[in-house]
Amino acid sequence: MDRLGSEELQTVLVLDGGVSAPTGGLVNGSNVRLIALDFSPRGTETPTEWGGRLGFEPSELAVVTTDARSVDSFDAEMIQQVRSPADLTGIGVEATKLLDTWGEETAATPCVVLDSLTVLFQYAQLQPLYQFLHALTTRIANVGGYGIAFLDPMTQDQQTVRSIASLFDATAERTDGDDWQIRPR
């Protein structure tokens, strides 16, 4: 399986309605700081829970979520809240602050996980979401980080999925059971 962390693959769009990423892990290295843009109702709240979902346990966790979620439920070094998942500008500002802070330090690599695009599509149309993701993936690349975003492809038409996928270095799709296919762009 291809992994993130090579020059070619820094960002991946996970196309699956489930909650996990490919079990082999997408990120190389053990010293990864996770920036979770977490808008999913299921809430992955600790580094250990993220480790179970992503195949690596982050060394540190920062969360950007809505003010409807209790900050007490997260086991994270930093928690930033925005008014709503519709506040793409606020989400982008908070993610950029965290990337700037953690991207400057060479000892650890920042990894942004967006959980999930399926939720954001309930609050935003394709064009503003595309612009938000373009800015975010560009910023991730500029700091040498990783990016993983989740989207249930059954919730959008194929043209929308292709448009969003064009912003990522690869897509990951579950084929049979626990098998995954990673397709570089």
From TrEMBL:
InterPro entries: DUF7504 (IPR055927). It comes from the Archaea. This is RecA-superfamily ATPase, KaiC/GvpD/RAD55 family. It comes from Haloferax larsenii.
